[in-house]
Amino acid sequence: MPDTETLPAEKAPVPRDTVTNDFSIQVATANGSGSQSSNSILIRSIFQMGIPVSGKNLFPSNIQGLPTWYTIRVSRDGYVARNPRIDIVVVMNQDTVEEDVKAMRPGSVLLYNTSLNFTKRADVTSYAIPFGKIVASCCPEVRLRKKVENMIYVGILQELLGINPAQVEYATKKQFKGKTKVVDLNLGAIKAGAQYARENLPKQDPYRVAPMAKTQGKILIEGNAAAAIGCVMAGCTVLAWYPITPSSSLAEAVIDLFETYRTDPVTKKATYAVIQAEDELASIGMVLGAGWAGARAMTTTSGPGISLMAEFVGFGYFTEIPAVIFDVQRVGPSTGLPTRTSQGDISFAATLSHGDTKHILLMPHSVGEAYQAAQDAFDLAEQFQTPVFVMLDLDLGMNNWMSDPFPYPAKGITRGKVLSAADLDKVKQFGRYADVDGDGIPYRTIPGTKHPLAAYFTRGSGHNERAAYSEKPEDHKATLDRLAKKYETARRFVPKPVLDETAGAQIGILAYGTTHWAVLEARDHMTADGLKTSYLRVRALPFTDEVKAFVEKYPRLYVVEQNRDAQLTSLLRNDYPQHAAKFRPVLHYNGIPIDAGVVEDGIRGQEIPKKQAAAKRGAK
Asked: Do 210 and 227 belong to one domain?
């Protein structure tokens, strides 16, 4: 049931001198301090008031106690990309307070713990809050005070911003479902914070929330959780994985769903298999073994794990075994920034392994598409008998996003060209790697099929169309040519791009994944300034005919992506070399989610004379 339907509609007057439902909050705390729960309650409370919100968690990759920042964007216009403009800063961490306060823009709002030492600023509105004193008044047990201290700022913001207390209470009960004592303890801290604000903090800032109706019927969910639901809907029964940030929560969500929905209700026995392998190479090997045996199998990983999987993925490509690989991308190379987001694996995954390989990649931009892409990936893997990558990123995978509820699958699963014993009765011979239909896709049998023609050798060495060992040059060339033809066939079956054209535009924008949200907002700003653009959101590799038509139509093409080396641009130039000079990369790669300003500056700077562009930015 959608959260916004659990409580009655609200009505409240909106003062004229306020900034309503259009600001960002940044909370600076320490990892492991319990701030994740308080931030979740805060964002959900605002969401339940019908106000569009999005959350970005910037957390450390090392140990408990290191700095972490959480940003909540409240946007009456529904924008969910990161907003670099922070309006309200809550500081709880002595280690970062000096830098956090220094980075604030003039006129913004600061809520800080009175125990912190830092250089005060006269050009920001400050609220000094004795968190220790307040939490001591509502939490008798000293050992629990650090755990609930962060709830104090939830109560403070509830009062200062006008968040409905009933919504905060509901969100708290949802966060700690079934834990009555924990709910009571945290609600007590929230109420103590709100009471302190009422009695001691006269409102000095313009920011507030007011009820809207823009989240009615929607849900809040992380991309990894959404993808996990899609995997179960797709009929997946095997997960082999090795833990790695930021993909571990996807595997953990799949396991939880397996335990609920893949357990025989009568015998209580598992009808699934989950194996935590010794490393990523072993995990993809297990997935390929399960796929070869006829199961729908998957693994989850990130860039370093993809590197280790290269040899086995090439084996899967050459022997034509279905497999689904979720790559939740993070910043590289090497260990890189494990808890920062990136789109840096696309060119690597597209041709992973040695020799000539081309893989199918799906690139969802939202939690809804992550859910659907999971289902599409399993169908495509079996239809084309090949490993398929689903390219998420940390921003999508581990952050909270609004979404419409996910639809129940409208069609059954697609197994592709699988021959049964009855099918084999109708043919004189079976060539495992023969191109019978001219589309590059051979027929296969599932091991255990009881028929004299069903058996074949699966070998990673050279083979002919009958699956017999061969080192003949003509056989190897024929195999590679057929695999290339199969990839060409896939252009007609992978998800098509999404096109938004503007009449009279001479500028085309291409992007993929979560970059979409920054492009969406930037286009609104540029359109308001008279700069017309058309936009194509790429959703898959190989590129479809719609991508080709878009590339051919526009004289200037801006490719927006979150990596240093313009990887999507390179893939586009490789596919459409005659149009290579058209592509102009707009790149962002510092690990922080891209914002609309990056897109605007990247396009305006080339479309408008620099002085004019600078003047426009200054005016904003």
From this structure: no
